[in-house]
Specification:
The structure holds three protein chains of three kinds.
Chain A lengths: L15 H10 L2 H18 L1 H4 L20 E6 L2 E15 L6 E24 L3 E10 L18 H37 L1 H15 L3 H10 L7 H32 L2 H8 L4 H38 L10 H6 L4 H6 L5 H24 L5
Antiparallel strand pairs in A: 1-2, 2-3, 3-4
Helix pairs in contact in A: 1-12, 2-4, 2-12, 4-5, 4-7, 4-9, 6-7, 7-9, 8-9, 9-12
Chain B lengths: L2 H4 L5 E14 L2 E14 L3 E5 L6 H8 L8 E9 L8 E2 L8 H6 L4 E4 L3 H4 L6 H11 L5 H14 L5 H4 L9 H13 L5 E5 L7 H18 L2 E6 L2 H7 L2 E6 L2 E7 H6 L4 H12 L16 E12 L13 E12 L3 E5 L6 H8 L7 E7 L5 E3 L5 H10 E4 L13 H11 L5 H14 L16 H13 L5 E5 L7 H18 L2 E6 L2 H7 L2 E6 L2 E7 H6 L4 H9 L14
Parallel strand pairs in B: 3-8, 3-9, 6-7, 7-8, 13-18, 13-19, 16-17, 17-18
Antiparallel strand pairs in B: 1-2, 1-4, 4-5, 9-10, 11-12, 11-14, 14-15, 19-20
Chain C lengths: L1 H26 L6 H11 L6 H11 L5 H14 L4 E2 L4 E2 H36 L4 H15 L2 H14 L20 H38 L2 H8 L4 H18 L2 H19 L4 H10 L3 H29 L1 H4 L2
Antiparallel strand pairs in C: 1-2
Helix pairs in contact in C: 1-13, 5-6, 5-8, 5-11, 5-13, 6-8, 7-8, 7-11, 8-10, 8-11, 9-10, 10-13, 11-12, 11-13, 12-13
The chains are: A alpha+beta, B alpha/beta, C mainly alpha.
């Protein structure tokens, strides 16, 4: 044979999945997004443990407590120690306005401990425990790492517990959308003809509608006495009803492109059944695109739930989600008194940012020839 | 020819010395053009010939300094003399984005590219694109430029130039678009015309017309032409001088007769041998073959795409793709189906194997065990049985293998799906097949992306052979391969043929390949078979007008016989 | 071209019809109706509820008819310009929505132009100077714009406005112009206030448009026709604008079709947060209070607006791209 030798490098035996992973790894931003998302979902799963306090523990005397910074090096008389602590605050009266104000008390050091014992909880409503990732050595002392809200509850703990609802709605909603997207997109792309024409018109119609007014209408239609859990599932359903169109388009596009590939024709000529062609030959080519599109669809779900809960038609107290938490910061007076009430918004922004990085990287890895 | 040009012929207009264009890519540097030297003379044609990766296209682009980043000219001179005896300007030293370089482009040295569909802007009118150069170089005002555009369209033989000037490229056929590109290149009366594979994407009859056009314009305007191609036949027909490139280097350079008569470098010899082997003058591979009984009877096969009427779009009338095609295929025979684009040859192949269903007609096939079926009307079950004996090889080796399956899985798929073999016996059979097509058996666990085009085509052949078929339909199986590889693949098929008892229906647009491989040939034009007979008869004594035109258009790799440009 | 527009307009009619049905079903989805809502609020505040009075109300408002009849009454009125009666406000709906819908339209469309004006040059720059510091900077900015929810940005801006600048950034008009008749001064006043919601609303839209423009232009930059233009001797800037940018403009302009719904949608939330006199706040109230004709009117007009936007988008694309016209 006069042709050059067949590539002997390890890449030669790499499967398409491995090649995709290798391409993905080169995207530093995307890897960063992946790490952040794994961390966030890990926090959401073990929320009761990670949160320093119970989210409902209120204290009327610690209303709108400012955030306390952690100091890691303790400057004690007998030298320096690695011993985390926060400075305590005491209430004082502003001499001019006579309003109550928190003032840092440099003398009072509340020491902190990792894996401290604190408020008891039932992890996933099954496993009882009372160990928290970090907490005050003296459980009676306050530790408001991100401040306290209008009922003296720890904002950090509420954000962490809220992560569970907000992030899981994102996943559930996207799973729903994925199901609808694959079914309709697949039918559209594989069958073509009139079915395709009809589904495309429906998708065009849905895309041309403004989403928030529709969601408002659907969410407002829910009975007010619904249990939080049912409401949670209904909100998820509502959000996914609009989000599936983008996924359907991606799936359809890929199916159409694949249908005319000669290896699909070859598979038919080899004697493959329709089912085998779809699942064994076409679907693996779809997977990386679908994963990328799904990752990019989650932020929209999270933003949607946040918006709806913020407006009062989504999850409501006592349910805790980032949107519900932001509802407490709805007017200027609250924000002026306690700007840290906006921090759940930062959690949303970080999540959406990380997911977008991740999704972008996945999409570039799945289709490197796109640009 | 204008009298003032008579004395200018053969004077050098562009002198390239030691040109090096490199692509720094991280740790390695790709030396795309490595120490290339040649001289272009007025009124003469220099052909640069080579296979893919030879650097011929980059050489052309280096002259106009339009090599895309990260490519850079790192050494060499390109001395351009606008008039004979003028002080030459070294183009290589000019800044790529400077005014001098821009003045040169289009006005002194013009270029025509390979793909006319994508090389013309889709949203600007043809007349505007032709006139643009004139306006950009400040040679004319808008009104005169438009008049000149109309004149140029007339010169390149586009019908109705006054209307054509306001049309968009997508309204033209491929050949027409290429003519428009040539008109665009000649707008500012350049001294040098660089043509980068301008006819590779065109039908062979259109190619002949374009080559004649370029020759005529060259003679009329005293142009120096630099013509890039991979086709030795084209070289033989139009070149005065030839430059052979391989992997960025010049391996041989000579006047055309000398190169063809007495090539020196082994690569040149290989190229010429491959071209001659698949040329019209060479003997066929299987001149005397006894043909067995009739295996396939095609009767009146027609395929018409139905009309598309819709409230929201323009209605499309019914389009006939095949009209009443009939022929017989004997056992052990190689039947060639030749035609240009739009002839219906690929559609016919798809109909025979039932990837498409014919609207009318019968395709009667006799199985190994003797029973006869009509493939055209067969149900899925019957087709499953038929597809064990009739298999297909496709054109694009990169697209016909699933990139997500290993070679073993690709080749073994028909065996697995048909419930014939699995597990260890399947592996053994796959290895045996790999050996048959000349690939080492241990590549079975590799993925298609690790192989070259020729190797992938061998894998495709192995897959076709897996079920021990009787008939293989090869749809342009060698068209996507380099010339030197084509002969190898054809020889592989010919070698396997007697051992495995195969018959072939070979679809191609390349008459030379068909002549080499097939016993009988059917010539197709616009959905019909216009002529059918033995390969020898068709190629030496064609009866029909279209067949004669087709044969006349094939560029023969013999410089002594320049029939192509004669008419 | 005229036939093309006529065909598209014809295709629009079933869409609008479908919109009206969808909207009506949406507002009828809630169990009960305005009267039962009213009764519940009466009961909650401790007052007695008189059943016959409730039945009277029902008849008076036509709420005792079957759904199909209610729909027909409503839609035949809408076509004549009568959008029904608002139970909450005790006024004809038309008098409530008129100016609000107009302002929503003004806000959305001006934000659309604003985002196009920003996204086009930045997208072009990002594509032409790919992987440069500028490209990374704008990409980061774009991602941030996408990540921060619009209403959060509104909250933050409100906070900054009050604590740092001691001004109230909410509202579209200064108090003296709030209910005044239209005049040139009122337009100027509107312009002065409009830029805050426009920036908030436009940020995430601009971010996605920048990425679309960048991607489309990158696709075109390596096309053979760009080489042809260069080989003709055109300057880099000229050929860039005349060819790849011009071609990439087509899909960019066609984004109108889905950006407008996003903007209208976003304006609803932001207007609720900033308490602007547009559709948002009133719509939310109407939905919560089951004021069906008010809610229906808003929803119908908002949806028709965006559906019409896709029509405009198609026509613009056909104007710019001869390939589509000749299909």
């Amino acid at each position: 044979m006069s042709e050059a030798a067949i590539a002997a490098s390890p890449l030669a035996t790499a499967s398409e999945a491995q090649l995709t992973w290798l391409r993905f790894r080169r995207h530093r931003l995307a890897m960063f997004g992946l790490v952040v998302m794994l961390l966030l979902y890990g926090i959401a799963i073990f929320a009761e443990f990670v949160a320093p306090f119970s989210p409902d523990k209120s204290n009327a005397r610690l209303v709108f407590h400012p955030p306390q910074a952690i100091h890691f090096i303790d400057d004690a008389p007998d030298g320096w120690h690695f011993r985390p602590f926060v400075y305590g605050y005491r209430l004082a009266r502003d001499p001019k306005t006579l309003a109550a104000k928190y003032v840092l008390d440099g003398q009072r050091k509340n020491y902190l401990k990792f894996f401290a014992h604190g408020d008891s909880y039932d992890l996933w409503t099954l496993i009882p425990g009372n160990m928290h990732l970090i907490g005050p050595e003296d459980p009676a002392q306050p530790m408001f790492l991100l401040g306290g809200d209008r009922q003296g509850r720890d904002v950090l703990s509420r954000i962490i517990i809220g992560a569970r609802a907000s992030l899981s709605i994102g996943l559930l909603g996207v799973a729903n959308s994925l199901l609808l997207g694959i079914i309709f997109g697949g039918l559209s792309g594989y069958l073509g003809g009139r079915v395709d024409w009809f589904i495309q018109r429906v998708i065009e119609f849905i895309i041309s509608l403004p989403t928030i007014p529709i969601w408002l209408a659907l969410a407002a239609a829910l009975p007010k006495d619904m249990s939080p859990l049912t409401k949670y599932f209904c909100i998820t359903l509502i959000i996914s009803l609009i989000g599936w169109t983008e996924l359907a388009r991606v799936v359809r596009g890929r199916f159409l492109a694949l249908r005319s590939e000669s290896f699909v024709t070859a598979a038919w000529l080899d004697g493959c059944s329709r089912k085998r062609i779809i699942f064994r030959h076409m679907l693996p080519s779809l997977t990386s695109h679908i994963i990328a599109s799904v990752t990019l669809a989650i932020p929209a779900m999270i933003l949607a739930e946040t918006a709806l809960s913020f407006l009062g038609v989504g999850l409501q107290p006592p349910a805790i989600s980032w949107g519900a938490l932001l509802k407490e910061a709805q007017n200027v007076e609250s924000i002026a008194a306690a700007p840290w009430l906006l921090l759940p918004g930062a959690a949303v922004a970080i999540t959406v940012l990380a997911l977008n990085f991740l999704g972008d990287g996945l999409r570039d890895a799945a289709d490197p020839h796109a640009h | 020819m204008p009298t003032d040009m008579a004395g200018n012929l053969n004077t050098p207009v562009l002198d390239v010395r030691g040109l090096r264009t490199h692509f720094p890519l991280g740790r390695i540097t790709l030396k795309a053009v490595d120490d290339v030297s040649f001289t272009l003379r007025r009124g003469r044609t220099l052909c640069i010939v080579g296979e893919s990766g030879s650097g011929k296209s980059i050489t052309a682009r280096s002259i106009l300094q339009i090599v895309g980043p990260p490519g850079r000219i790192v050494a060499g001179q390109m001395l351009y003399s606008a008039t004979p005896g003028a002080v030459p300007v070294d183009i290589a030293k000019l800044p790529a984005r400077g005014k001098q370089m821009r003045d040169l482009r289009g006005r002194e040295i013009a270029m025509v590219f390979q793909e006319p569909m994508t090389s013309l802007s889709p949203i600007h009118r043809v007349g505007w694109q032709i006139a643009e150069g004139l306006l950009a170089h400040g040679l004319m005002d808008a009104k005169s430029a438009r008049a000149r555009a109309v004149d140029l369209l007339r010169q390149v033989e586009i019908p109705n130039p006054h209307e054509a000037v306001d049309r968009f490229p997508f309204e033209f056929s491929g050949g027409m678009r290429q003519r428009a590109m040539i008109a665009m290149a000649l707008a500012c009366n350049p001294k040098v015309l660089i043509a980068d594979e301008p006819t590779t994407a065109l039908d062979v009859t259109t190619q002949a017309e374009i080559l004649r056009l370029i020759k005529r314009l060259q003679v009329e305007n005293g142009l120096a032409v630099l013509f890039i191609t991979h086709d030795m036949g084209v070289v033989a027909q139009i070149a005065d001088d030839v430059l052979v490139m391989y992997r960025g280097e010049v391996v041989e350079q000579a006047p055309v007769e000398e190169l063809f008569a007495a090539p020196v470098h082994p690569y040149t010899i290989r190229l010429l041998d491959a071209a001659k082997k698949l040329g019209m003058a060479a003997p066929p591979a299987r001149p005397n073959v006894a043909m067995g009984p009739v295996m396939l009877q095609v009767r009146d096969v027609s395929l018409t795409y139905p009309a598309q009427a819709s409230l929201f779009r323009r209605a499309k009338p019914p389009t006939p793709a095949l009209r009443g095609v009939s022929f017989d295929l004997h056992e052990g025979e190689n039947l060639g189906i030749v035609g240009e684009s739009g002839s219906g040859k690929t559609t016919l192949g798809s109909c025979l194997i039932r990837v498409l269903k014919p609207t009318t007609g019968e395709v009667r096939y006799q199985h190994r065990d003797g029973h006869i079926v009509d493939l055209a009307g067969l149900d899925r079950e019957g087709l499953l049985v038929a597809h064990r004996e009739i298999r297909m090889i496709f054109q694009d080796p990169f697209a016909s293998l699933n990139p997500r399956m290993t070679v073993e899985q690709c080749i073994g798929e028909p065996l697995l799906v048909g419930g014939i073999l699995e597990g260890k016996p399947l592996q053994m059979r796959v290895r045996q097949l790999l050996g048959m097509v000349g690939l080492p058996p241990d590549v079975a666990s590799r993925y298609p992306h690790a192989f070259s085009g020729g190797q992938r085509q061998r894998i495709v052949i192995a897959r076709a052979l897996a079920l021990d078929p009787r008939l293989i339909i090869a749809d342009e199986a060698t068209s996507a391969l380099d010339v030197t590889l084509r002969g190898q693949i054809l020889d592989l098929l010919l070698e396997l043929q007697p051992k495995l008892g195969l018959s072939f229906i070979f679809i191609s647009h390349d008459l030379g390949v068909i002549r080499y491989f097939c016993n009988r040939v059917a010539v197709m034009y616009r959905g019909e078979i216009v002529e059918i007979g033995s390969a020898d008869d068709i190629c030496t004594h064609p009866q029909q007008a279209y067949t004669k035109a087709l044969l006349a258009a094939v560029p023969e790799a013999t410089p002594a016989r320049r029939s192509l440009l004669a008419s | 071209m005229g036939r093309f527009i006529a065909r598209r307009l014809l295709g629009m009619i079933p869409f609008i019809f479908l919109v009206s049905i969808t909207v009506f079903l949406l507002i009828k989805l809630t169990p009960g109706d305005f009267v039962s809502n009213y009764a519940a609020s009466l009961a909650a505040s401790g007052e007695t509820v008189d059943d016959s009075m409730l039945a009277d109300m029902r008849t008076r408002y036509g709420l005792d008819q079957p759904v199909i009849v209610q729909y027909w009454d409503w839609i035949s009125g809408v076509v004549k310009g009568d959008f029904g009666y608002s139970f909450q406000w005790q006024q004809p709906v038309v008098s409530l929505i008129g100016e609000r819908i107009g302002l929503t339209l003004i806000m959305s469309v001006s934000t659309l132009f604003f985002t196009w004006a920003i996204a086009l040059p930045i997208g072009v720059y990002s594509a032409v100077r790919r992987y440069s510091w500028g490209d990374y900077f704008f990409t980061m900015l774009g991602f941030l714009g996408l990540a921060i929810p619009g209403f959060l940005m509104a909250l933050i801006l409100m906070f900054v406005g009050v604590s740092v600048f001691h001004t109230d950034v909410g509202g579209l008009f200064s108090p003296e112009y709030a209910n005044a008749p239209w005049s040139w001064e009122r337009v100027v006043d509107l312009a002065k206030h409009l830029w805050v919601p426009m920036i908030i609303l436009g940020t995430s839209g601009a971010a996605s448009l920048i990425r679309i423009m960048r991607a489309n232009l990158l696709d075109q930059l390596h096309q053979p026709y760009v080489d042809t233009a260069r080989a003709k001797g055109l300057s880099e800037v000229t050929l860039l604008i005349r060819y790849p940018i011009r071609v990439a403009l087509n899909p960019f302009v066609s984004t109108l079709g889905f950006v407008l719904p996003q903007l209208v949608s976003g304006s609803v939330i932001i207007s609720i947060v900033l308490n602007l006199p547009t559709a948002g706040p009133l719509l939310l109230q109407a939905l919560l209070g089951q004021d069906q004709y008010l809610a229906g009117a808003f929803l119908l007009l908002l949806c028709s607006l965006t559906v019409f936007g896709t029509l405009v988008s198609d026509i613009l694309l056909a104007l710019l791209d001869p390939r589509i016209r000749y299909q």
